[in-house]
Amino acid sequence: MTEMIEVRGVTKAFGGVIANNEISVDVPEGRITGLIGPNGSGKTTLFNSIVGYHPIDRGSVKFEGREISDMRVQQIARLGLLRTFQQTRIYSKMNGVQNMLISLPHHSETYKSMFQKYPPEVTEKAERLLDFVGLYQKRLLISGELSFGQQKLLEFAMALMNEPRVLLLDEPTAGINPTLINGLIDRLKSASSELGVTLFVIEHNMSVIMTLADNIYCLANGRVLAHGAPDEIQNDQRVINAYLGGHYIADDGDDGEN
Ligand code: ADP
Ligand code: MG
């Protein structure tokens, strides 16, 4: 099995808080790897550490065998490693196609000249991906008019527009109506199986991650508490304790409201 991402001994502290403490994680190619853990356990920080959002204090991060821990976000993104955020980042006054185009790397041009510059195949690609996430009919609608779940799907399509090899998703189902969650899970699975994108997904909802991921890491107090197949994780007493507010959270001194 080829590892797309290899994290070794990554440590990141904020003042006195050790958000990531000697974390080692592998993200295998073509699979869906899950990342769970109580609030404040260090999940988002680990994503930030991987994609170069902040410098790490110690450790190594490799992407396709290449050390990236000294690189910045844009440089890492160009290699094909992208992440999405807990909060949606779309332009609500632009329509779906425009948001797709604006998600591509661009520099000094104004939006208008940028849109004119794109060859038809780029617009077609945007439309194809909007179709992939089920938003083709709504592609010309101002994005602020989309439901929250549809905005999440658009954001997912925007990430795919950049043809990532690996996509890190931070709580993709957060705030989505439960009836729409299955549709999103389905799209994530298709991105993996049809588009060949390797996924690493933070998810708070246990039942979602159990259906989505084929292997799962559980963090607690900035450390890897457990790693295994979904059924192993689900039945792991340490994981259950961490989620039920057992001593793994208690000695944190942080109720993780963030
Ligand atoms: P999770 O995503 O698992 O909820 P985070 O990675 O966001 O957890 O946070 C882990 C710990 O690091 C928390 O105690 C949080 O308060 C702290 N933390 C995260 N980011 C920052 C930051 N930029 N500055 C200070 N503390 C931070
Ligand atoms: Mg988080």
What does this structure look like?
By secondary structure, the chain is α/β, with parallel strands linked by helices. The chain has two domains: 1-80 and 164-251, Rossmann fold; 90-163, no CATH class. Helices cover 37% and strands 24% of the residues. It contains eleven helices and ten strands. It has helices at 43-51, 73-78, 96-102, 111-117, 120-132, 148-161, 178-193, 206-212, 230-234, 237-243, 247-250; strands spanning 3-14, 17-28, 32-36, 58-63, 66-67, 81-83, 166-170, 198-202, 215-220, 223-228. The strands form two sheets. It has a six-stranded mixed beta sheet, sandwiched between helices. A four-stranded antiparallel beta sheet has the order 2-1-4-5, covered by helices on one side. Strand 9 and strand 10 form a beta hairpin. The longest helix is centred in the last third of the chain and has 16 residues, at 178-193. It binds adenosine-5'-diphosphate (ADP) and magnesium ion (MG). The site of adenosine-5'-diphosphate has 14 residues, from strand 2 and helix 1. Adenosine-5'-diphosphate binds next to strand 2 and helix 1.
Based on helices, strands and strand pairing, what is the structural class? alpha/beta
Shape: globular
The total beta strand count reads 10
- Biggest sheet, spatial arrangement of strands: 6-7-8-3-9-10
Given the structure, what is the number of helices?
Answer: 11
* Oligomeric assembly: single chain
Hetero compounds:
adenosine-5'-diphosphate, magnesium ion
Mean pLDDT: 89
Largest sheet properties = 6 strands, mixed
Number of domains: 2
What's the helical proportion of residues? Answer: 25-40%
Unreliable stretches, pLDDT < 50, 5 or more residues? 246-258
- Could you give the distance between the termini? 36 Å
CATH class of the largest domain: Alpha Beta
CATH topology label of the largest domain: Rossmann fold
